[in-house]
Automatic annotation (TrEMBL), chain A:
One of its GO terms (cellular component) is plasma membrane. The keyword Translocase applies. This is ATP-binding cassette domain-containing protein. GO terms for molecular function: ATP binding; ATP hydrolysis activity. Pfam families: ABC_tran. Residues 6-242, 241-497 form the ABC transporter domain.
From TrEMBL, chain B:
One of its GO terms (molecular function) is transmembrane transporter activity. One of its GO terms (cellular component) is plasma membrane. It is found in: Cell membrane. The chain crosses the membrane at residues 12-33, 39-57, 90-110, 117-142, 168-190, 220-245, 257-288, 300-319. It comes from the Bacteria. The keyword Protease does not apply. This is ABC transporter permease. The keyword Disulfide bond does not apply. Its main location: membrane. CDD domains: TM_PBP1_transp_AraH_like. It is a multi-pass membrane protein. Keywords: Cell inner membrane, Cell membrane, Membrane, Transmembrane, Transmembrane helix, Transport.
Length: 497, 326
């Protein structure tokens, strides 16, 4: 018996002229929780595909249980007990939980007949083994993200997994769901199943993993026991930079509020919210999904027609009834899912940046091309968007750069109030730091008032000068100055549920 | 899924019953045996084609080529029978189904190999098939006097006959058994075989289906070949039931059949649909068209009604599926 379940030695993989993997090694022990960290483009996804047999590396050797396996293909990999849970879970939303769980096994066994009774038995068995109560007859599409993830894990277990690879498993989960996932992960470990987390969320990695491997630019730059690392060390390894997290503590703002709400409510979601935003402030909102935080943002942006209460903008009551009205009032909103809610992916950076101000760049019936170009160029460089030119389609950009395009668009509208919902979801550490710096600069130098909604508690603590904790549609706590610490917020959130 | 599908089907069945009661109130002749038997007869050909379209729609595609395939199959077979003085039933049906299968395989080839959009592919193959048929075989109609006798006799089989007060007899065609038999086979295939489940899986998410280990290429071939085969078979049944082979037949039928399938609860996004729902949908569409005739509504206006049905039914199912996705 070998010490390692799987060993990858000096793996090299090229795509055209690009070296995606440059002699990397990775070894996973049976039943260990291992974390693979790296920024976008570091080769994380490529190595997953090598392990799961989708890509064949040009160099290097793969050993499973100490024996070289030669060329791996997806079916062989599954046969060796390797299961990948992709971010989209690859589940069939129209089919029931039981069928989703049974299909892979049936396919593996080469069955032609769909045995529903056995599918139910299998589903009930594996779900109870995971200690969760999910109805095997429920349609997968009707489950929450966390539920779908559990189904995906259950499916991997049914496929007799010995190694489950989870690609960014915590991205769409709330803190409670992450805790539940970690509990399940430890259960898997107790059953001798190894788990490889692929993630760039350092805090979570530190919490759950025993060993760590860090990739950067297709090379392995660090590995070792998790206890030998701290957050700063991992960040340094991932980015190659020293990123400091100086908290945002501006002088107490004295200017009158730019935005104020009194008794703001959205039926069924938000109740009696009093909020004050001054120029230069970054105010955080922490709360679980369903706490009403998104509805609050949408109400301010004119997207909740049933809104009650008063919104004061520079002291004057306003009532934005539509997005157009909100934009005209100088309110900007960067939604949670920037990819689906905001950007036109196949279109150029220029078009994406200027889409909200085209009305103002008109000359008669036509667009003023030179003005358009001027505005674009200014914002392109101000936002430090990493792209060959402003003609590049936004779909080609990394998450962080796409987010900067979104921010740039709103700044072009001349917004005075910026509402950010999960500003760095799905963004790697390096980009995250740049985005934070840009947001702080905007607040500090331009006097923008920023409302930041985030699941990422450390993000709020570092970047906000005030934080409201929201629960069941109400502000239940306000933290400022020295009170603002992660433990304080996490404790507050815990007592609420 | 079971529960939801059943509730969808229940809803469609309720609408159907309500419509039947209303139509019966307006026109008591609706409940006469002659009318009900003629309704059942009209279900057969459209219904068999609908089973094929159902399969294609569950796989996330759409098929507008089946009327062309059906007409090609029936006309080629009947012309060959006339030319060879062949009179029989079994072989002609097998031949027609095979012609449909080959044409369907052509759809599958283009859709699978070139990753083309099914709507465009089937529009193209429909046009090619109809054009070739008229160009190579001519456009003369084979009438009852030339039609093979055995074929006509086969189409005349009745299950039961009822004598009306005035002495006329009405029969319920035995072809409904063929239709229901095919429906049952399709249901069992979709629900209880892995190839059937692969159609649902592929229609839900092709990429996930590949990752799960389904042979999705085989699924596409299976779907379009089966749809073509059913079309060819339905065409042959049609010709033996109307005692005529017209190379210009089934003009505009694709819309009726797609309307019926959508009415039966199949999703235009793929991954959803059932045989039971489709049977009900077909019945409802045929009944509505039949009632319009009974009410002496002009045929041009019937097109309007079919169009409205397709738009309304698609909107409702799309709304249902969107709500699920959200």
């Amino acid at each position: 018996m070998s010490e390692y379940l799987i060993e990858l030695n000096n793996i090299g993989k090229r795509f055209g002229g690009v070296r995606a993997l440059d002699g990397v090694s990775l070894a996973i022990r049976p039943g260990e929780i291992h974390c693979l960290a790296g920024e976008n483009g570091s080769g994380k996804s490529t190595i997953i595909k090598v392990i799961s047999g989708i890509y064949t590396p040009e160099e290097g050797e793969i050993r499973i249980d100490g024996h070289p396996v030669g060329r791996l293909d997806p079916i062989k990999a599954v046969g060796h007990g390797i299961q990948v849970i992709y971010q989209d879970f690859s589940l069939f939303s129209n089919l029931t939980v039981a069928e989703n769980l049974a299909l892979n096994t049936y396919l593996l066994e080469g069955r032609r007949h769909m045995d529903w009774a056995r599918a139910h038995r299998m589903a009930r068995e594996v779900l109870s083994r995971l200690g969760v109560s999910i109805d095997p007859d429920a349609e997968v599409g009707s489950l929450a993200t966390s539920g779908r993830q559990i189904v995906a894990i259950a499916r991997a277990i049914l496929a007799k997994a010995r190694l489950i690879i989870m690609d960014e498993p915590t991205t769409a989960l709330t803190r409670h769901e992450v805790d539940a996932l970690f509990a399940i992960t430890r259960d898997l470990q107790a059953q001798g199943i190894a788990v490889l987390f692929v993630s760039h969320k350092m805090r979570e990695m530190l919490e759950i993993s025993e060993r760590l491997t860090v990739f950067r630019n297709g090379r392995k730059v660090a590995e070792g026991m998790m206890r030998d690392f701290d957050e700063a060390a991992i960040t340094r390894a991932m980015t190659g930079l020293e990123l400091t997290d100086e908290p945002y503590r501006p002088a107490p703002p004295t200017a009158p509020a730019v935005l104020e709400t009194r008794g703001l409510g959205v039926p069924g979601a938000v109740e009696g919210v009093d909020l004050v935003l001054r120029p230069g402030e970054i105010v955080g909102i922490s709360g679980l999904i369903g706490s009403g935080r998104t509805e609050l943002a949408r109400a301010l942006f004119g997207m909740e027609p049933a809104m009650r209460g008063t919104i004061l903008l520079n002291g004057a009551p306003v009532h934005p009834r539509s997005v157009q009205e909100a934009i005209a009032l100088g309110i900007a909103y960067v939604p949670e899912d920037r990819l689906t809610e905001g950007l036109f992916l196949p279109q150029s950076i220029e078009r994406n940046l200027t889409v909200s101000i085209l009305d103002r760049l008109r000359r008669g019936l036509f667009l003023d091309r030179s003005a358009l170009r001027q505005r674009t160029d200014a914002m392109f460089s101000a936002m430090q968007i990493a792209a060959p030119s402003a003609e590049t389609p936004v779909g080609h950009l990394s998450g962080g750069n796409a987010q900067r395009v979104m921010l740039g668009r709103w700044l072009l509208t001349g917004a005075r109030v910026l509402i950010l919902n999960g500003p760095t979801v799905g963004v790697d550490v390096g980009s995250k730091a740049t985005i934070h710096r840009i947001i702080r600069d905007l607040a500090l130098r331009e006097g923008l008032a920023v409302l930041m909604i985030s699941d990422d508690v450390p993000e709020l603590v570092t970047n906000c000068n005030r934080i409201h904790v929201m629960h069941r549609g109400r502000f239940v706590a306000e933290l400022t100055g020295a009170d603002m610490s992660e433990t304080r917020i996490n404790d507050t959130l815990k007592t609420l549920t | 899924m079971n529960k939801i599908l059943q509730s969808t089907e229940l809803a469609i069945a309720c609408v159907l019953l309500l419509a039947m009661v209303l139509i019966g109130l307006v026109n008591p002749a609706f409940w006469g045996f002659d009318n009900l038997f003629s309704l059942a007869k009209s279900n057969v050909v459209i219904g068999i084609m609908a089973l094929g379209v159902l399969l294609v729609m569950i796989s996330g595609g759409i098929d507008v080529s089946f009327p062309a395939f059906a007409v090609a199959a029936l006309y080629i077979v009947v012309r060959a029978m006339v030319a060879l003085h062949y009179d029989g039933v079994f072989l002609p049906f097998v031949a027609a189904a095979l012609i449909g299968l080959v044409l369907g395989a052509f759809n599958a080839l283009i859709i699978e190999r070139f990753r083309m959009i099914p709507l465009i592919v089937t529009l193209g193959t429909a046009s090619i098939t109809r054009g070739l048929l008229l160009g190579l075989l001519g456009s003369s109609i084979v009438n009852i006097n030339k039609m093979p006798k055995e074929l006509i006799a086969f189409g005349k089989h009745d299950l039961v006959t009822v004598e009306a007060a005035n002495g006329a007899t009405y029969g319920l065609t035995a072809m409904v058994l063929v239709y229901l038999g095919l429906g049952l086979a399709m249901h069992l295939m979709l629900r209880h075989t892995m190839i059937g489940r692969s159609v649902y899986a592929y229609g839900t998410d092709p990429e996930a289906a590949r990752r799960a280990g389904f042979n999705t290429r085989r699924t596409i071939w299976f779907v379009y070949c089966t749809a073509g085969m059913l079309a060819g078979f339905a065409g042959m049944l049609h010709t033996s039931m109307i005692w005529q082979a017209n190379p210009r037949d089934f003009q505009g039928l694709e819309l009726d059949v797609i309307a019926a399938v959508v009415l039966g609860g199949a999703s235009i996004f793929g991954g959803r649909g059932s045989v039971l729902g489709t049977l009900i949908g077909v019945f409802m569409l045929v009944m509505v068209k039949n009632s319009l005739i009974l009410l002496k509504v002009d045929t041009t206006w019937q097109r309007v009604v079919v169009g409205l049905i397709i738009v309304a039914a698609t909107a409702i199912t799309a709304w249902r599926d969107r709500k699920k996705l959200a």
